[in-house]
Amino acid sequence: MPDIRPTAGSGALVLNATYEPLCVVSVRRAAILVLSAKAVCVADGEGILHSARNALPVPSVVRLTRYVRVPYRTHIGLSRRAVFARDGWRCAYCRGPAETIDHVFPRSRGGRHAWENVVAACARCNHTKGDKTPAELGWRLHHLPAAPKGAAWRVLGHRAPDPRWADWLDLREPETEAA
Ligand SMILES: [Zn+2]
């Protein structure tokens, strides 16, 4: 019986042979990499994976045994979940829990669907705002929206990072990053 909680966020961080973070894969995929000697486990997760012949600690971080050349994906896709993750699931206007996406300069008036013009917002602020701009309402944005940057975003996207990955990813809060 596999002794592993099938949580939605369960995955393993894959590092290149150089320890550079590459991507997140399923725990099962990471275990296959380790069992086929394509990777070594560098940090265990919780639990043990059992197969017909092997028992293996659940891998949390694995490192490829051979270097792979990977082109960088510099553009981070704009998705609803990614906006929530960037904004910490907080409303950009009142800092309450965010449930909706707001276009700061309204789309109905030509506002762009771009990282610089979308923020997470609570339903109340979004409804009140309607097709007005924050300036017209005398509202202020908590921070200026921008496209997310950095290795953590490249690898994780909107995924919540496992604390065990912190040694390999730069997981500083976006607010503390230099502009
Ligand atoms: Zn709000």
From TrEMBL:
Keywords associated with the record: Endonuclease, Hydrolase, Nuclease
Protein name: 5-methylcytosine-specific restriction endonuclease McrA
Domain HNH nuclease residues, every copy: 78-127
Domain of life: Bacteria
SMART domains: HNHc (SM00507)
InterPro entries from the UniProt entry: HNH_5, HNH_nuc, NA-targeting_endonuclease
Gene Ontology MF terms: endonuclease activity
Organism of origin: Micromonospora marina
